Amino acid sequence: MEEITEGVNNMNLAVDTQKKNRIQVSNTKKPLFFYVNLAKRYMQQYTDVELSALGMAIATVVTVAEILKNNGFAVEKKIMTSTVDIKDDSRGRPVQKAKIEITLAKSEKFDELMAAANEEKEAAEAQEQS
């Protein structure tokens, strides 16, 4: 969990009137469950979280959102798709990329599920030490 906190603190986020509860997902930089755990942390702080991605990372965002929903941590608030122009340095002209933004809110059972997960983690750590 320390690396997740470190990741949150050191996260290099683009300046787009940056929302504090937005996670910009890449499909190459971090493993899938990094984003799942990060989204849980954000929901503890802000009650909802916005996951966004461009191009090939869209599948990662959708998977993260589905994991959170299927495990009862989140409910879908909004899904928005669009295309954005990205300047491609190698070609010298703008390239259109697909963009998705998924807003998730805490489920009613979120706090209960997080407490249960923390108890399990503490029990496992206590067992390792004995």
UniProtKB/TrEMBL annotation:
According to the entry, every stretch annotated as the DNA/RNA-binding protein Alba-like domain falls at: 21-80
Which GO molecular function annotation, any one, does this entry have? Answer: RNA binding
Q: Which SUPFAM superfamilies match?
A: AlbA-like (SSF82704)
Q: Where are the transmembrane segments?
A: none
Recorded superkingdom: Eukaryota
Q: Identify this protein by name.
A: DNA/RNA-binding protein Alba-like domain-containing protein
Q: Name the Pfam families for this protein.
A: Alba (PF01918)
Please give an example of a GO cellular component term from this record: nucleus
